[in-house]
Write a structure and sequence with these properties.
The chain is of the alpha+beta class and 759 residues long. It folds into four domains: 122 residues, Sandwich (Immunoglobulin-like), CATH 2.60.40; 115 residues, Sandwich (Immunoglobulin-like); 280 residues, Glycosidases (TIM Barrel, Alpha-Beta Barrel); 106 residues, Sandwich (Immunoglobulin-like), CATH 2.60.40.1180. Helices cover 22% and strands 26% of the residues. The strands form ten sheets. An eight-stranded parallel beta barrel has the order 17-20-23-26-27-28-29-30, surrounded by four helices. The protein has a six-stranded antiparallel sheet with strand order 31-32-33-38-35-36. Strands 1-2-6-5 form a four-stranded antiparallel sheet, with no helix packed on it.
């Protein structure tokens, strides 16, 4: 009997090779790419036919005229022909002499005579376990990016790529790409229970393969979507995901990472950040004015940053985005460095190089919203999966974008893991979180009646708040020494306070109030500034309520707001430059970390444009070069003097000397260390005429002039204080000692105390 069955196997017309258990309904669903569980049909399965036990093997292959099952458990491998049961390429074989599933390959012959032998994608067990799926659905799989998406794997000695995507409302999900002519019939994916995750391992694929997910929604409509967890993408208009393994880069920054961990929690460290848009920092005019690549820009940027004395670079969003004009804020590939400047490995090299030069790297991260592009997250599986269904909760009316549903476990998991992935994969030193204010409030930029209150009837977005606290805690847990910085423009309490104290858990918060106040003051003509003295002083009332970063960012030099230089209230470039020098010196002496957008360090004249290079040629002119030299010296001074950063976030290092002399357009204050062994007096004169002035000082001795923004070296007139002043026992500003000073117009002078005149 056994011999008789074996002799019959493989005969094309043999009864055993006809459809065994496949119903007509299943066949039609498979051929129409509507079958919700293809692994139940395709691959190899034990069956009983007419009381005969065996296995059935099925394969759905494109452009194949003949196919065989190669039994790898026999030596030599036995060939078992399959019958073509559908013109579209469905093949089947019943194998009665094997009662268990066995190791096999498919041997397919194409119409052109080409023969290819390969493992069947439908013979592999799922690559995700029940625990993986449970934690994901619970919102607690912190490294879900290692599970979902596309991953090059070795399964039992078989090389290939595993694909997994979350689409719970889909009726069918297929993997499509060049390997199957973008035809969703040939690689339908397996649903993993009630998790909403679909999965497929495709042997033989590797890095560089283009792919998307074809999703059939509950209405029968097809959606072609890129991978939410994709690590690399091709550019528009196709925007396909590309199989890529970011972990292949060999890092050389062990010393940097060790030092970063050791310095975790050190908020007293100096931090001066250079904000950069990589595509417009410097271009290559001789090559079509293209942007520099990651590997090209890294050495040049590092040279400039070191020369200028900045401690960190903050790059505007680099996650993949289709539209250049969004500056990276309309993200479609949250896990992928943009293709514009190279590969993920190239971006890793960029970070590694800056670390080798002693420069920290901070990334602008955008979890507050995402665009409506049909190929990305919006209505991903035909439902409002990542976004709220109610537009009062799920849409930013001002920006035309969608809002993440922070209360959904899987969405929160996606975002938390995204933050961790950037830090893990690319060794970033921190994230600047964009548009935090829009996340905190349900009524953000909404009129009455166009928002939904929280469960307590309030306007706070409780789910978003919980998400921010969670991501900050996990970042600090997994990556000590990294910093989280909030762009938050409201008075929400405790943004930079630990979550254990009821705060949001950020390390720092952008000081938007100080920026707006100072820029409003400096936009006035000097003759009018006496009426706006409070713009200079009000900020001290809340200065220590948060861990502030003093910022002049990209947002202030676009959309008709004018460049930093042209914001200044003066008619001519020399006066504008003098104003800006005084503003910078005041900012760098004021408590708080520092941030300056590229081009502002040399006084770019025109507004910033993402489509062209900075106007570096301006540095040949004294006013612009003077600004650059001053910013350089301010950074070096700030970084080298611990008294200027140690008490950034407590009042022990600052006190007013004079803050109400509006008629003179003068403010004066002290910066010092806790023991007052190091003392600085800062005198700012924002009037338009030279002035002889007296200022009280906290200690007798010699006060050396260490910074004068009116120095000829910086493009000023050279009027100053002859190197310094000796104190006089003349009470002033409530102090027993004072010094007479010459205050040039539109200037800031910094004096450092010493016991006796310098030799």
């Amino acid at each position: 009997m056994r011999a008789r069955r074996r002799s019959c196997v493989g005969a094309p017309s043999c009864l055993q090779n006809r459809i065994v258990i496949l119903s007509k309904a299943d066949l039609n669903l498979l051929l129409e790419a509507r079958h919700a569980s293809p692994h139940a049909i395709l691959g190899m399965h034990p069956v009983t036919r007419r009381k005969v036990k065996g296995v059935v093997a099925r394969a759905f292959l494109r452009d194949v005229t003949a196919c065989e099952v190669m039994d790898l458990e026999t030596l030599p491998p036995r060939s078992i022909p399959m019958e073509r049961v559908a013109d579209a390429g469905l093949f089947e074989a019943f194998i009665p002499d094997r009662e268990r599933v066995f190791r096999y390959q498919l041997r397919a012959t194409r119409a052109n005579g080409e023969i290819r032998q390969f493992y069947d994608p439908y013979c592999f067990l799922p690559t995700l376990g029940e625990q993986d799926l449970y934690l994901f659905n619970e919102g607690n799989e912190h490294r879900v990016y290692e599970k979902l998406g596309a991953h090059v794997r070795d399964l039992g000695g078989v090389q290939g790529v595993s694909f997994a995507v979350w689409a719970p409302a889909a009726t069918r999900v297929s993997l499509v790409g060049n390997f199957n002519h973008w035809d969703g019939r040939y690689h339908p994916m397996r649903p993993l229970g009630s998790s909403g995750v679909w999965e497929l391992f495709v042997p033989g694929l590797g890095e560089g393969e283009l792919y998307k997910f074809e999703i059939r929604d509950v209405r029968g409509q097809l959606r072609l979507k890129t991978d939410p967890y994709g690590t690399y993408f091709e550019g528009p208009p196709n925007n396909a995901s590309i199989v890529c393994n970011p972990a292949v880069f060999r890092w050389t920054d062990d010393a940097w990472m060790k030092r970063r961990r050791e310095e975790a929690g050190r908020l007293d460290r100096p931090m001066s950040i250079y904000e950069v848009h990589l595509g417009s920092w410097r271009r290559v005019p001789e090559d079509g004015d293209r942007p520099l690549t990651y590997r090209e820009i890294a050495p040049q940027l590092a040279d400039h940053v070191i020369e200028m004395g900045f401690t960190h670079v903050e790059v505007m969003p680099l996650a993949e985005h289709p539209f250049d004009g969004s500056w990276g804020y309309q993200v479609t590939g949250f896990y992928a460095p943009t293709h514009r400047y190279g590969t993920p490995e190239d971006f890793a090299w960029f970070v590694d190089h800056l670390h080798s030069r002693g420069i920290g790297v901070i990334l602008d991260w955008v979890p507050a919203h995402f665009p409506r592009d049909a190929f990305a997250l919006a209505e991903f599986d035909g439902t409002h999966l990542y976004e709220h269904a109610d537009p009062r909760q799920g849409a930013h009316m001002d920006w035309g974008t969608l809002i993440f549903n922070y209360g959904r476990n899987e969405v929160r998991c996606f975002l938390v893991a995204n933050a961790l992935a950037w830090l893990e994969r690319y060794h970033l030193d921190g994230l600047r979180v964009d548009a935090v204010a829009s996340m905190l409030y349900l009524d953000y930029s909404r009129p009455e009646g166009q928002w939904v209150p929280n469960r307590h009837g309030g306007r706070e977005n409780l789910e978003a708040i919980d998400f921010l606290r969670r991501v900050n805690d996990l970042v600090h847990h997994y990556h000590p020494g990294t910093v989280m910085i909030a762009e938050e423009s409201t008075s929400f309490a405790g943004v930079s306070r630990p979550t254990s104290e009821g705060g949001l858990g950020f390390d720092y918060k952008w000081n938007m109030g100080l920026m707006n106040d100072t820029l409003r003051y400096f936009s006035k003509e000097p003759v009018h500034r006496r009426h706006h003295q409070s713009d200079l002083t009000f900020g001290m009332l809340y200065q220590y309520s948060e861990n502030f970063v003093s910022v002049y960012s990209h947002d202030e030099v676009v959309h008709g707001k004018a460049s930093m230089l042209y914001k200044m209230g003066a008619w001519h470039i020399p006066e504008k430059a003098a104003n800006l020098r005084a503003l910078y010196a005041h900012t760098w002496m004021w408590p708080g970390k520092k941030l300056l957008f590229m081009g502002s360090e040399f006084g770019q004249s025109r507004e910033w444009s993402h489509a062209g290079s900075l106007d570096w040629h301006l540095c040949q002119y004294p006013d612009h070069e003077g600004l650059r030299l001053l910013v350089r010296d301010l950074n070096r001074f700030y970084v080298s003097e611990p008294a200027l950063s140690r008490h950034d976030f407590n009042p022990r290092g600052f006190r007013w000397l004079s803050c109400q002399d509006a008629d003179a357009n003068v403010i004066a204050y002290v910066r010092c260390d806790e023991a007052e062994d190091t003392l600085y007096v800062v005198v700012c004169h924002f009037g338009g005429a030279q002035r002889e002035h007296r200022v009280g000082v906290p200690r007798a001795g010699f006060w050396r002039e260490v910074i004068n923004t009116n120095s000829a070296y910086y493009g000023g007139t050279g009027v100053g204080n002859d190197g310094g002043r000796v104190t006089e026992e003349r009470p002033w500003d409530g102090l027993s000692q004072s010094i007479p000073v010459t205050l040039p117009p539109l200037s800031a002078c910094v004096f450092k105390w010493s016991p006796a005149p310098a030799e």
